[in-house]
Amino acid sequence: MTLRPSILDPQGKAVEHAIESLGVGPVSQVRIGKYVEFLVDEQEEDAARRATEDVCRRLLANPVMEDYSYELTRL
Amino acid sequence: MDRVTFGVVVFPGSNCDHDTYYVCKKILGQEAVFLWHKEEDLRGVDAVILPGGFSYGDYLRCGAIARFSPIMKQVIRFATEGGTVLGICNGFQILLEAGLLPGVLLRNASLRFVCRRVQVRVENAATRFTSLYPPGEVVTFPVAHGDGNYFTDPETLAQLNARDQIVFRYADAGGNVTPEGNPNGSLENVAGVVNEQGNVLGMMPHPERASDPVLGMTDGQRLFRSMIEWCIINVRGERQEDGQCQTLAQQK
What's the structural domain count of chain B? Predict the structure, then answer.
């Protein structure tokens, strides 16, 4: 989950300034997000995708301020 | 005179629940009950208060987990049916997450937890929460939060303004709504918003911490007294078939 582009990310800005202090090349547009992993007990990829989408949309991300993306990996 | 019963919801991590209960019961002389978040019944209370604190340790996002507590189904139903609901601080965050109010509260622009007294201007004194304040009065409430930076999209903001849903704005020492008076970067200094129907108010400042004279501030009392007056006339009045509610309205 990451803050939507229209939302100012003061944490990201603070980290960006710290990166500048490191003296490592030109780095900009630092954005801080959250990473979540979970196991979906489904055999079919479509079903797993629907469940994941549901969890992201209804709980993990607040659509007013956040975007989300996800990857499915078969175990 | 009839008394009003406040229901104070207690989530794991609520920490203003007892202050709120104390103000309702001891300072204002009303009835108050604690409603544990696992309960599925509001026990017939006249008004619900979601108190401040750190429900579920602010995990994921402030209020995001509390919004799924069993009691919230009943709070949402109560609100949808026109019941009086006040969310203070974390309670405001929960109301936003539950979709009962529009917008979100972002991390404070300063990235710091802000804990101090602020001046707040009453922008809409025609609500059931603010009827005892003169319009435009500047009152003093404490704030204590890390995520109080109100944000919403421009269309919603325009609607909030057009419908007078912004009930409180942060003001500076002179009582003017300026960037200097804004403790958290909140959009247009928004400190509290009411829903379109006018029965659900969310606010970051703590009126319950400005009600006991011992604490040196009493501006918050009138917020609760407005709610009490409204509930006595409208909720209690409906339950009585005689003319007592009219008498109360005339006294006002």
Answer: 1
- Within 8 A of B64 by CB-CB distance, chain A residues are 59, 62
State how far residue B212 is from chain A, nearest Cα, in angstroms. 36
Average pLDDT taken over every residue of chain B = 93
Three-state DSSP at B180 gives helix
Selected catalytic residue, list B206, B229, B231, B245: B206
Residue B189's φ and ψ, nearest 5 degrees, are: 60, 25
Q: Does A39 touch chain B (CB under 8 A)?
A: no
The ranges assigned to domains in chain A are 2-67
CA distance A48 to A39: 9
CATH of A2-67, picked from 3.40.50.720, 3.30.1280.10, 3.40.50.1450, 3.30.160.20, is 3.30.1280.10
* Closest chain B residue to the Cα of A6, Cα to Cα: B153
Determine, for residues A59 and B104 on separate chains, whether the beta-carbon distance falls below 8 Å: no
pLDDT beneath 50, residues of chain B = 241-252
ipTM: 0.82
Predicted TM-score of the model (pTM): 0.90
Tell me the residue range of the domain where B116 lies: 5-251
